Amino acid sequence: MENVTVLGAGSWGTALAIVLAENGHNTLLWTHRVEQAVEINEQHTNHKYLPETNLPNNLVATSSLEEAIYHSNIVVVAVPTKAIREVCEKMLAFLEKKVLFVHVSKGIEPNSLMRISEMLQESLPSDVIEEIVVLSGPSHAEEVVLHHPTTITAACNNFAAAEKVQDLFMNQYFRVYTTDDVVGVELGGALKNVIALAAGISDGLNYGDNAKAALITRGLAEITRLGVKMGGNPFTFSGLTGMGDLIVTCTSVHSRNWRAGNMLGKGMKLEKVLEQMGMVVEGVRTTKAAYQLSQKYEVPMPITTALYEILFNEKEPKIAVDELMIRMKKREIDDLQ
Ligand SMILES: NC(=O)C1=CN([C@@H]2O[C@H](COP(=O)(O)OP(=O)(O)OC[C@H]3O[C@@H](n4cnc5c(N)ncnc54)[C@H](OP(=O)(O)O)[C@@H]3O)[C@@H](O)[C@H]2O)C=CC1
Ligand SMILES: O=C(CO)COP(=O)(O)O
């Protein structure tokens, strides 16, 4: 059994900490909120993020980042993309040994256009990084804590590190695969959030199942087109971390991105939507990054571009959809290169 630290006590960090604790690992969950650490340790609940879940008694929380980092040389980073650099900077003071980092965040940083593993590499000295493993796939926290069967993929250039993470998390309800396609896994996980926002908008407009199937399928086409150009393996995009996660995020009521899109489609303004969600909606910032990537790599991404116009240039969702439908005729199957 291992000592493992999880950074970030939102829905996903807490759900993963539960999996690890249930697997018998000595798990310490770090939150930047003192009162949340007290609640987890004394009530064994996390009412804000997983209101109906009782946490296992052996899951301990702390609000001391120093204690969290000293606890272990396996650190799961489960904060939203926009908090990654801040948390890395705070960690720096306490990192004295090599750490196996596992990251589970699904975003791309606007402007720098970095994937999360690139952000970690840039923010932390190389001599404290044993490896960086990405854990990604169709996995809503709300279902994992109910022990509903879930599959996910651990990605690292070094298969031994990916297999170590596979062994840490795998159990009867949580099945973990491995791959060495870090680029494909990170891009699939981040870009599906953009398409899920669009699917939510379509549902908010009551456009029905044909439209949603079109968004999922053509969304996958544009994710794959960009992902392959950036070095991802084409097969990764039809796997768990590509199509799998795209399906779950575009169709599940648990999805924050779908729910945010749904409110936008019903006419609510972005600011109000984000205020009402109270949880991270990664797809918003990632839409900006994806739009910038499509320009940088000269890859047509019509759904992403339409969503960019809705989110950042106040285009009416209905007009954006009309414009998508009347674009120039084209063949369905792209040349991915
Ligand atoms: N939820 C899910 O089912 C899944 C989520 N993910 C990914 O996991 C990542 C985290 O998502 P999720 O857990 O859902 O997000 P939540 O919004 O549920 O929780 C985010 C957590 O991070 C904390 N946080 C935010 N900013 C900082 C900061 N600067 N320093 C320290 N802690 C901070 C929040 O604290 P506070 O309460 O103070 O805001 C909160 O505890 C995202 O990238 C998401 O895409 C991946 C798979 C599944
Ligand atoms: O990535 C997820 C499920 O695999 C979570 O998606 P949301 O952030 O849209 O809830």
TrEMBL record:
Listed name of the protein: Glycerol-3-phosphate dehydrogenase [NAD(P)+]
Sequence positions that bind sn-glycerol 3-phosphate: 106, 137, 139, 192, 245, 255-257
Domain of life of the native organism: Bacteria
Name of the gene this protein is made from: gpsA
Catalytic activity as recorded in UniProt: sn-glycerol 3-phosphate + NADP(+) = dihydroxyacetone phosphate + NADPH + H(+); sn-glycerol 3-phosphate + NAD(+) = dihydroxyacetone phosphate + NADH + H(+)
GO CC, alphabetical: cytosol
Ligand binding (substrate): 106, 256-257
Location in the cell: Cytoplasm
Annotated Glycerol-3-phosphate dehydrogenase NAD-dependent N-terminal domain residues: 3-160
Protein's job: Catalyzes the reduction of the glycolytic intermediate dihydroxyacetone phosphate (DHAP) to sn-glycerol 3-phosphate (G3P), the key precursor for phospholipid synthesis.
UniProt keyword annotations, A-Z: Cytoplasm, Lipid biosynthesis, Lipid metabolism, NAD, NADP, Nucleotide-binding, Oxidoreductase, Phospholipid biosynthesis, Phospholipid metabolism
InterPro entries tied to this protein: 6-PGluconate_DH-like_C_sf, 6PGD_dom2, G3P_DH_NAD-dep, G3P_DH_NAD-dep_C, G3P_DH_NAD-dep_N, NAD(P)-bd_dom_sf
UniProt binding sites for NAD(+): 8-13, 141, 256
GO MF term list: glycerol-3-phosphate dehydrogenase (NAD+) activity; glycerol-3-phosphate dehydrogenase (NADP+) activity; NAD binding
Organism: Ureibacillus xyleni
